[in-house]
Each structure stands twice: as C-alpha cells, then as structure tokens.
Amino acid sequence: MRFLVLTQYFAPEVGATQVRLSAFCKELVCAGHKAEVVTAMPHHPIGRIFPKYRGCFYRREFQGGVKVHRVWLSATGGSGLSRILNYISFMLTCMIALLKTAKPDFIFVDSPPIFLGIPGWIASTLWRCPFIFNVADLWPDSVRDLGILKDGLFLRAVYMLEKWIYRRADYITAVTDGIRDVLLTEKQIPASKLLFLPNGVDTELFRPGTADEQLKARLGLSGKRIILYAGNHGYAAGAEQILQAAKLLSQHLEFQFIFIGDGPEKPKLRALSEDLCLRNVSFLDSVALHELPKFLSIAEIAVISLRRAGVTRGARPAKAFVMMAAALPIVLAAEGEPERLIQAAESGLIVPPDEPRKLAAALLKLMSNPALASGMGARGREFVRDYFEWSVLVRAWLSQLREKTNFDISREATYEPSVHKSPVSL
After folding, report:
1. Domains of the chain: which residue ranges?
2. Mean pLDDT estimate for the chain
3. Which CATH number applies to 2-200+389-404?
4. How far is residue 158 from each of residues 115, 154, 183, measured CA to CA in Å?
C-alpha cells in the first residue's frame, strides 16, 4: 500500500513529532509499503527556516527510502497571531506539494496543527482515498486549558473546524489512552473510526552506554553529576519548576542541571535562571537525534515536567521512552497518564507538578541512592523493550487498519519482531 503523510514537522527538525513520524515512515517501508511525506521547510523549534533550506519555495529529497516534499511557510517561534499565520501559511502552500505526489491508498494527516485537516480532506476527496487524522494533541482543548487562547470568536471557530474534520475523517488515530478516551466520550467519535498508535522508541539507537567524558570536558562539566532535561521548551512543560528545584539544590555543588533543546519558553527560562543566580544550570542547543545518546550517557537522572492542567493529564511524553531506553531513572512532575506510565514501568519517582520542593527532594533521593536509581533505570529499559519498540507499535496499527478496511495491507514481510510483547494500555 502507498501512504502519504501530511505534517508540518519532519526531520531534520528534532522533537517528539519528528521522531514519531520518521519512525512511522521507516516501519511502513520495512513492512513492505511505500511512504511519501509532504511537509514544511525545517524551522521548528527555533522559528527560522534552517540555513540549508532558505531561499527556496519547493524542495524534494529522500530520507531512508521515503520521498519528502518540502514547501515554504511563514516561519515563527512565537505564539498568538504569528503562530496562527505559521499554521495557515503551510495549510495553503502544502497544496502545491500535494500535487507533486503519487496517488496514495491512504492519506495520514498529523495534528496539530488542526488546520491541516482541510487540505488533507481536499486531497482525500480528489484522490478518493481514506483520510486518517492523527491526533497527537487535543488542540484546541490544550491551548484553552493552558490559558494560551481565551474563549471568543476565534476559539469557537476552531472548535467548529475540529468537529468538521472529525466528521469527515474516515479514521482517527490517538497517540495516548487519554486522547482516545476524550475522543470517545467527549468528542463522541464512533469506536469504529478510532485507531491507536502510541509513541515508541528505537532501543538500538537509545541504550545504556559509558559516560562520554570528552563531552563532559568540552561542556566544562568534568566532575559534575548531571541531571538532564531534554526536549521542547514549551509552555505546557512548566520547566520553571525544575529551575526552582535547582535553586533548592544549589548547595550540592557537584550537581549540574543541563537543559537541551529549544522552544518559545527558552528565553524566559534563561531569564529566570539569571534572576535566581543559578550556577548549577546550563542551557544547550538542540542536538540531532543521532547525537543525543552521547548526552544521555553523561546524565545520571532525567527529569520530566508538565504544567498542571486538564489536558496534560492525558499526555504521554515521548521523551520518557527515550530516557527509559537509555536506562536513565526518571523524576516526573506530572499527573494522570504520564504518572501511570512511570508507575507501570517502575522506572522513577513521581511528584505533583508545580511543587519544586518535592521535586528537589525526589532528585536528591535518587542522586543519593545509586542502587535505587540503577534499578529503576534497568526496569525502564526492560519495559520499553517489551512494549514500545516502534516495529511492534506500527505493526499493531497496521493490523487495526486492516481490520477496519477492505484493503489488503498484510504485506509485512521484512521484519518479524515476535520476541516483543503487545503494547500495554495505561
């Protein structure tokens, strides 16, 4: 079968969406199918088109057997009106790239941004092929619950668009149990339309390794014990609570917090770090996916935070799977589905969000007890190897799709990951 993936974000950008879709396309190809991608010029999360891609409107390239079509968009790293223009510009320009693709058997549209549902539906109508809408974030619920968008005409219009897309999509894929439950109960999506494809991890790329002492020396961190935050520096993460915990642990001179990544909140986090006079915090730029294992190797603990909000209770941070694959114990400041994930894996300590004293105490407990930390790290890696290998997850998703359609999509012949267990429900 031929799958066309429509997404605003794709490698070489870094982030959960990019990793997920790259792995998805790779596994489709491994299963004997064809995958083609329509996406934007790389620009996320820095808000500027990457230098290599500047000055061109359309570009075609290949990534691991996947043909990728890229088009220009109005790049921005901000929020509000500039972000909406960013979304709408790609919604319009992607139509040009769609015209350059082969007719697919399925069109897979990744959201957010939700606006991509419009060109996705248009293309599926013209091609007369099923339209699969992938819900990775319950937008606009998330921006409403986090207070990013206030009730008003625009938000009501977006909710109307959401209903319109859900009605017209042939199938809707959820990436977490929480999203699936909301789609079923609050959005009233028929179970017959729902598919499930959670985030996963490549445990061959991410694995335990000897600390890269040369990297530590290059970063000026020789002799330091590293606590790692890696990922998008966005509002939902509420990463300021990690800085507040770092302040509480500042008397432990051997501890060093490193923040890897970019995002709209990074300038605010840097400013807060300066206001708190934190010498035990370092901010690093995003790193390419293949470079990330070196940075994981020098860390002793990974910390993951989410702001307290209704929508974050149904999240499942993709970074958690990466940290577990690298056998890093996790300190989680979140509630709901992220909490259940760490509990199921027995891979870390959990504290309530927005309580930096409890976060600092949990970090200190793990840093002071290497045996406890090592055991949690080992259990986390075993957990993701059993349940969250990408090959297993995509194979299960293809089976769901086969059951709901009349298409013969059973040509998975390249791999046979029978040693792994089925995905778990949290």
Report:
1. 2-200+389-404, 213-385
2. 90
3. 3.40.50.2000
4. 9, 6, 16
- Return d(Cα 75, Cα 77) in angstroms, integer: 7
Two structure tokens written together for 218: 């290059």
3-state secondary structure of 160: helix
Residue 289 neighbours by CB under 8 Å, 6+ apart:
11, 14, 19, 205
Concatenated DSSP letters of 86-129: HHHHHHHHHHHHHTTSPPPSEEEEEESSGGGHHHHHHHHHHHT-
- What are the residues whose beta carbons fall under 8 Å from the beta carbon of 84, sequence distance 6 or more? none
Question: Nearest Cα to 271, choosing from 239, 303, 301?
Answer: 239
323 vs 293: CA distance, rounded Å: 10
State the residue for tokens 């950008």. 13
Backbone φ, ψ for residue 99 (5° rounding): -70, -15
Contact status, residue 122 vs residue 211, Cβ threshold 8 Å: no
Helix (H) or strand (E) holding 363: helix 356-367
The residue ranking higher by pLDDT, 3 or 264, is: 3
* pTM of the entire predicted model: 0.84
Residue range 325-344: mean pLDDT, rounded: 95
Residue with tokens 């206030």: 150
